[in-house]
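User: Second chain of the day. Same drill as before.
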Amino acid sequence: MHKAKLVLKDGSVFHGNSFAYQKSVAGELVFNTAMTGYPESLTDPSYKGQILVATYPLIGNYGVPGNELLESININFESDKIHLSGFVISEFSEDYSHWNAKISLSEWMNSNKVPGIYGVDTRALAKIIREKGSMPGKIIFEDNEVDFYTPKETNLVKSVSIQHPKIYGNGKNKIILIDCGLKNNIIRHLLNFDTTIKRVPWDYDFTKEEYDGLFISNGPGDPKECHATIENLKTAFENTKPIFGICLGSQLMALAAGGDTYKMNFGHRGHNQPVLNLIDNKAYITSQNHGYAVDSKSLPPEWKPLFININDKSVEGIYHLSKPFFATQFHPEASGGPTDTEFLFDEFINNLRIRKNV
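Assistant: Same format as last time:
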């Protein structure tokens, strides 16, 4: 057992023990309220540059699943590696039990060289973040100091996006999928339809290519850093090919439309965020992971909010009044989390079919 400590930019210090790789790291400290889904969260590229605090007290009890593949997409994880900088938990379960578990959480994090600290009062830690906002933090081992990390120093999307285009499926509906830090479950959902998916880098110029629909993925960091993506979206908005954006994709669409985004105090991260559809007045429980949001007052007249968060009234989706463009701030593909809003993938595909048949 090795001692470790978590240091916050506000001067708060939490002492605990290591349960994974031992190296000092820095990142933006954020918390997630989900009760399950730590393999999915740790492999979500949207956590790049962040130290994640799990508010659920017991972590590691079902281990880590196997590494089976489905059409070159890992069916258990949201990418091919752990992306967050560090993991902070209250109680670590060294003994795990699950029919599909192959290794323990600590073994998996060790193989990815990601540190973790347990024995921390995560309830007190979450209260600090809620009151003071997400802030820089660092996990320190044996006084091996590191500087506090500032996410804006780098384009985080560039560091997690695919480097070269890749094709999935062989269907009749061709979709350009902009990878800004893609979760694999988005691809899995799109492959349920008769699709050919061309996954492209965040700054790839797709504007002169033939496609039936455009999809913009989730991803980490400040959306305003993705200049190339925003410029390409402005060109895409000139035609009527259907567009669907998720999370960062929603923010990028708003910026391309002429709107604005802002950094939230502590963001939304968990599986229990309620949203309201402003068109049919129906409520849904959603999976979320974001620290930025769209400023509703900045949207041009042809764009309107589609969903709002019932808790804080922040924008959870936008749509165009006359063109088949829409986006959600939450994750309808879930993994982990509730699947209440999976139907939005059907709406996107229906938009493709309608336009092709006109």
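The CA atoms of residues 110 and 272 lie 30 Å apart.

User: Great, on to the next one.
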